[in-house]
Amino acid sequence: MSNVSSSSAFKPDIVALEGVTKRFPGIVANDSVDLSIRPGEVHVLLGENGAGKSTLIGMLSGLQQPDEGRILVDGKPTPITSPRHALALGIGTVFQHMMLVPTLTVAENLLLGGPWWQRPRIEELAARVAEITSTLGITVKLHAKVSELSLGEQQQVEILRAMVRNSRLLILDESTSMLTPKGIEELGALMRRLVGQGLAIVFITHKLKEAAAFGDRISVLKLGRKVGEIPPERLRALDEQEIISEIVELMFGKQKDDPEAVERPTRTVRTEAVPLLQVAGLAVASTENAPGLTSISFDIRPGEILGIAGIDGNGQKQLAEALAGQRMATGGSVRLEGVAIETLSVGERRRHGLRYLTDDRLGEGTVGTFPVSINFFLKQIGAAPFWRHGVEQRSEIDRRAAELVREYDVRTPSLKTPVARLSGGNIQKVLLARELAEGAKVVIFNKPTYGLDLANTLASRQRIRDTAARGLAVLLISTDLEELLSMCDRIAVIANGALVGTVANADDARTKVGRLMIGLAA
Amino acid sequence: MTGLFSEVFLSALLFGAVTAAIPLLLAGLGEQISEKAGVLNIGIEGMMLAGAYLGFVGAFYSGSLWLGFLTGAAGGAAVALVMALLCVRIGLNQIVIGIALTLGLEGLTALLHHFQFSRSYPRLPAADATVIPLLSDIPVIGPAFFKHHLIAYLAVALVFGMGYLYRRTQLGLNLQAAGDKPAALDVAGIDVIRTRTIAVLATGTLAGLGGAYLANVGAGLFIPFITNGAGFLGIVLAMLARGRPVWVLFGALLFGVCLSLTTAMQVAGINIPTDVIQMLPFLAVMIMLVLFGRRASLPAALGIPYERGAR
Fold first, then answer.
1. Which residue spans traverse the membrane (chain B) (predicted)?
2. CB pair distance less than 8 Å for A102 and B186
3. pTM over 0.90
4. Per residue in B84-116, pLDDT tens?
5. Of the partner residues B170, B181, B186, the one whose CB lies closest to the CB of residue A83
6. Residues A406 and A510 grouped into a single domain
């Protein structure tokens, strides 16, 4: 962190991270991350889902411990052992999911955590709250039940709670995700007043515009690694568009010596071939927590890989599920080899040759407690030759499963091992084997390499390329632009549930897709 | 039928109702603490049995009823300690462990009793009643409500004590947070595991006391399986009371009346088969569940072991 010491207006870090690494089974959530958090600064942590932001917060707030590296508080190495310890160090966190007890009042929530033998000191609290709210320009209904407050109000209560506890560092985890545009604006103004009072703020988001608008310093995380930092001096020198393009460069830009870098495919798709999958005007109604889809149209020819790029949460999962039949479409048509399948059930679509590899490998992809062998045939339960007259044909299942394990190189102790005990990469191989085995014509991959280590990532990508080479149509949904650029024939960009443009994967595709992703015309 | 509505009969009926209600009240109040904190304490029947057995043994050998209450409460707390270790600290399934504890203690207390007393059932001398002056002179109500053992009055006072604890103290807030949103309590800097452990131990103590009252004051002796579902009735009471101690009191009295009616009607020699009469309390449970079961509001995290940072 050389720029720390060379900074002209030197303010000592309140908290600093040095080479912090955190692993979860099958995933490296944070890989040697350095971070410096200073008073009077809004430090934006930017990254997509799975970039490791939440894990970082977990370690700062005492919920998790780093496996390697150390955390410095006021320059001294300090393991943050518990949430109580974090609070005592002056680190207050507003979590992405509200941490208020809905059945208690605002005042009671603010009092939570006091010594148990004491009577809650409501009067004292009210005076303190009045003092804080008057300088921040917010109003809080102390005696309202939390369940009666709007999400924006609840968030203010959480910020207030951190202030009541004399926090010096306030961590806001995806705090804008549930707010209205006006609420976001108010939060921005509130953050400015807080840093004006000398507080340090860590603001986590995956929205570029917010980062550019609110940040004094921006750190970009990608797949657990910190890939860049824009210091305040530089931020002040740039206007919003320049900041955003610099962030895009950091987030999606090509790094040197990238082992994932693969030559762009030279496969030729016969343009005159009849498309295997034709989607026209597909629409899905939006739900409470998911965007809908509006008039999605595209074709995929045999042997072609169409990529879907976009910031996570813009309707990718909805698109995949609508095609697979798991989500009700409100309009449009889906044709497979010219046959309309939009009204068919999940199972019927599968019989027509449509395959969907979910990104939720353990949740909906497999049954974790079932053995590897049964998981290969989850979608054929009851069907011959693996079941006859409702009775499981163990030998037939094991024979075929052993073949698949060999063919797809699944590293499993035995066929009987519960699939949840395997690593993420091997679970993905089980899914690949199941979906690609026989009768597949069109395959939808949703984030196929998400959370996998490098070796498995490369293996999965090769598997997808082979799939296309066999003449199947492939829809590859990914938030990893590098992946799409290395594999696709064409890349469509999804934003707010609509395809905003499709570009051929030529030399200028990176810039074109990047511009489409942040809402600029290609 | 003439005897049924006489003054003596009525006051005996009510006296019996209160006597039967006190163990239910203590169990219900105890269960309520655990449930507030998010632990479904099915083992409470076993805790009551441990309290009944140890309470009786303590009183029998020492000759002091008060020492009996002390050993009974300690017995309930000891069982609760096992429950807290397994279900709160280690995070095992609360229902499975609760049932196991109940079944285990049914057998254990019966076995120990058999070893000590073989097939005899020695009785304790009748408990001294604390007679409240003036109030106890009121006809019917006086002898029914104001001539009980001191513990009974303390149990009723506890209803209001618990009400104060839940509404007005920091511990009450912590308990409710542990049951409704344990993660919020954790990030507020309070140890969820410790809060829940305290709650379960309090449950065991109260259940043990209730069991001791049942054996020493209610029956004056110990027989195997003496609680006969009183702990389970306590669970029902706690669930229907929606977190309010005073509703546990009302519910306990209602069940107490039913239990007392069972005895009273048999004594009065009414021409109904005893099997039908003995069904009464459980019929009352079913009626109450049908009428109010829908309104039972339970803490959001009830029955779910807490694990920090679980994802």
1. 6-27, 39-61, 67-88, 95-115, 150-166, 198-215, 221-240, 247-270, 276-293
2. no
3. no
4. 999 999 999 999 999 999 999 999 999 999 998
5. B186
6. no
